[in-house]
Amino acid sequence: MVSSQLSGTLGHDMSDTTTEQPTATGTETVVVIVEDDPNIADLVELYLRRDGFRPFQTANGKRALEVIAERQPKLILLDIGLPGDLDGLDVCRSVRATSNVPIIFLTARDDEVDRVLGLELGADDYVTKPFSPRELMARVKAILRRADGLHEPGAEPAVVDLGAGIVISGTRREATVNGDPVALAMREFDLAMYLAVHRGLALSRRQILDGVWGADWIGDDRTVDVHVRQLRKKLGDGFLLETVWGVGYRLD
């Protein structure tokens, strides 16, 4: 039943939710919803429409990849527990092979292994069911603001040279090692730039979350640890990010 999956604070009539799939125009922000529970998918679509987005629904992994390729969304809302041969983790892995489009996992699984694996595969955030649609919309908007590069003027330098061949370009939103581009997910890049801007400072996980994910982000502090592991893996030994025990991390 949908009441077991969604927050009890909804109070909305489902009769005004439609399953008709619209045609996107060039000026609308397309969001793909990959969710096999039609009640949840319809409700999320309703909130997206009310906030001015153009949603497209799909209920399985194979079709999701087709819709994502066709519609080129600005963001994907992706259920982990999809039916069929491809689950949400498989879809995320496939998308990340060619795209850095932001991904938020919608999951009924409260298993830390699933959350960590999803983040390691390049998901930007996750929401555990039951969830508040209003909270989900807040996260969608926050991630899209970052994806659109709406940062405060002068908050980031154009280029940061970290030595050992590692260069981070804020204008290109690109990291290179010895001149070769390194594929970083959106949140991984934001974390690398935040650490570079605050180089030499010991930063707590809470400070990092506030600076990279936003002060209104709700989630596990260990999300930072997952992304740190990914940065160390992708940028190599020259990325001198030290663990400061009892505090957090410091980029030397």
Fold and architecture overview:
The protein has 252 residues and is α/β, with parallel strands linked by helices. Helices cover 37% and strands 20% of the residues. It contains eight helices and twelve strands. It has helices at 38-50, 61-71, 88-96, 112-120, 133-147, 186-197, 205-213, 222-235, and strands at 30-34, 54-58, 75-79, 103-107, 125-128, 159-163, 166-169, 174-177, 180-182, 203-204, 241-244, 248-251. The strands form three sheets. It has a five-stranded parallel β-sheet, with helices on both faces. Strand 6 and strand 7 (166-169) form a beta hairpin. Helix 2 (61-71) packs parallel to helix 3 (88-96) and helix 6 packs across helix 8. The longest helix has 15 residues, at 133-147. The N and C termini lie far apart (51 Å). Mean pLDDT is 81; it is low at 1-25 and 150-154.
